[in-house]
Every structure is written in C-alpha cells, then in structure tokens.
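Give me structure tokens for this 426-residue protein.
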Amino acid sequence: MKRTTLHAALALALLAPAAAFAQHFETVDNIPWPTLGRFPAYPPESPRPTEVYVRAGVLRDNNIFRFADGINRRNLLGDSDTPSDEVLRVGAGIRHEFLVTGRQRLRLAASGDQYSYHRNTVLNHVNYGLRGEWLWEVTNDLSGAVGYERRHRLADLAQLQRPIKDMITEDHAFVNGAYRLGPSVRLRGAVDGGKAVRDDAAFNARNSHTTSVLGGVDYVTTLNNAFGVELRQTNANYPTPEAIGSLVLVDNEFTEREIAAVTTIVAGPQITGTARLGHTTRTFRQFPERNFSGTTWRGTLLWTPLQKTAFEFSLYHEPRSIIDIAAGSVVVNGASFGPRWAPTEKLVFYALVVRERQQFQGDAAQIVLGTPQQDEVIRTTRFGAGWEPRRFIELSTGIEHGTRVSNVFLRDYTYTAVMANAQFKF
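Here you go.
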C-alpha cells in the first residue's frame, strides 16, 4: 500500500506546478484533504483503478505581473494601468492504473486546464500534463519504475513582468530501480533525461537538455528507518548560446556532481522525516568564476502531536536551474513551515509560510558586464480551507500574499491573491 500511495502522489504531482507562479492556484490545489491520509485520525482511501475529475476556479490577483511600485504601468499595459486581473480556470484530468501481468502495473495520468484572463486576454492559454509509468517488480527484492512525463505551461509572470504569452514545454524520461540485498541493505539506481523549451525566441538561450545518473546504498531497519549514501552526476547542455551585450556569446553548459548522506527517520507514529546532507560542485564550461562548490542540504520533518493536527518543517540549500529565471544556476536557501488541522473528515484548514533567498551565482552577465550578483529574497504566505460536503465533491478557497526584495531596480514587488475552486471526482 505504501508503494502504491507513493507512486500515486508522484503521478498526481505532475498536475500541479513546482513553483508558485502568478497565474496558478497553488493555495487551493495543495489542500491537504483528510482522504489523502495526511492526518492520523482519518485513514487514507484506497486508490481506485480509474479516477476522473473536472474542476473550475477563479482567482483575483492585485498585481498579476508583479510590478514594482513606481513603474510606469501605462507604457507596459497600454490603455489600462491597472495591475490587477481576474483569472478563470476550467479543467479536467484522469488517472488510470491497471495490472498488466503478474506484478507488472501501468499507471497513466493526464490533465488539462484552460486559463482565461479578464483584462489581459492575450495571456489566455491551455496548460496540460501527461504522465505514463510502468511499475515493475522481479521477485520480492527487485522493483522500480520506467516512465515519461510532459508539462506545458505559461512562463512565470513574476520573472517576465510583462504581458507576454511565453509557453514552456518540459519533457522528462526516467528509469529507476532498487534491489534488496539481504534483510537490511538496499541498492538503488536511476537515470533521468530532461528537456525544457520556451516558445519565445527571445529566451531560447534558456532551453536546456539534461541527463542525470544516480547510485546509492541504504541500510534499512525493521522500523523502516534508512541511512545511506548516494552519488549523482548531472550534465546540462544549452543548445543556444546566451548573448551578453552585443559581442559575447556564452555557452552555459555545466556538469554537476554530488555526494550526499541520506536518511529517512520514523521516530514513532508522531514524528517522521527525511534529510540529505552533501557536497555539490557545479562546473560551467565557460567562466569558472561562476562555478559552485559547497555543502548542500534538504530536510523535511512532519510532526503530528494530535490525531487531527500536523506541522511540517523544511530547510534547503542547493543550486537549481530554473528555466523561468535564468540560463545559469540560482543558489536557493529556503525554509518553510506548514501547519494543518482537520476538525472533521470533511473539513480542513492549512497554512504555509515560505522564505527563499535566490542568488544568481551562475549568471554569465555578472562576469562579462561586471554587474553585481543578483540577490533576491522572496516571502510567501498562504491560507487555505477545504470542505467536502459530499463524497467526491471538494470545495476550497484560499488567500496568498507575497513579496520580493531585490538588489535589481524595479524587481521588488508585493501582491495579494484570493481564489476559490470546485472539483468533482468520478
């Protein structure tokens, strides 16, 4: 059951963006419904072979393009200098899982959403996600997954700060496996390949191809505590050189290597967590001044002191490549805190507070033009509530407030967004 639940979560994760974008509905999409097993008081539902949903939501954002105070909005928006907008979302999705033969299972998932803007109709678009995954097993000791996923979405308006419709298509193929070597030792391996492409030719330098290889070994106790070490190497290629100024073309290709200690802790029914602590080096093909080498970490702790209440804490420090932000790497140092409470099986409340510092350490322009390193602090606070008046009917509402403080002129912003969503499952 645990494996089934885990893979279901991974499949459904495709349906929600990985980052908080101005045009999306993360606050209501991430409601921790009691039926998902997020609270000890309410056992999780067994996943059905086929699940279909339809949904509709509305969002109002008072600063949809994340403008800074003092910016000349009329020059950017034409006849209207109003930075707010209302977004209507209508969508549907399906997930299907079936037994192929023996222990081999196949899982398929697809989703699509139409986003319609009240004022900035040029941004109207369709987001979609696809995922196919074969869950394979050979004896009780060897298992894994092979799969492919695609996501098509609008670029983050907080980075564009313009009424530009720039769609991003991300493809990801993967194969992974784990072998139980005796009662306590587990060997792991994985190979991943990814491609990210932006429609707007002005951002072609951010298009990337990546390949990653991972190997690890763990010691697993009878209580499912695990302690191990893993090695990972990632190669990233950017087919289009980045133009810096009028004369310099930069190759943003890099190789990243990491060795890390990893652990999963089950300290009784009330405390569980995962953590990784390692050393990461990222070496760029050009301009070694922007290389990264240092200690990286990521940890998450879930504390459920009461049957209907839980608290989640996360800390992380790592380099990332984010196609919405830049062609090079961004060193992200962040923390989050998320309490949640479900007084009944049909009613749930949650909050999330996130603080991230993003340092554009891999930006080639800093070296070529001698500009200061871009350094930004982003804070986001969310409050959400969900109600399930009847089986498979989910009504949710939320509010999100965020700020960005940057050392780059006119990159600061403040915004507040409110949203509501209705979802029906079949």
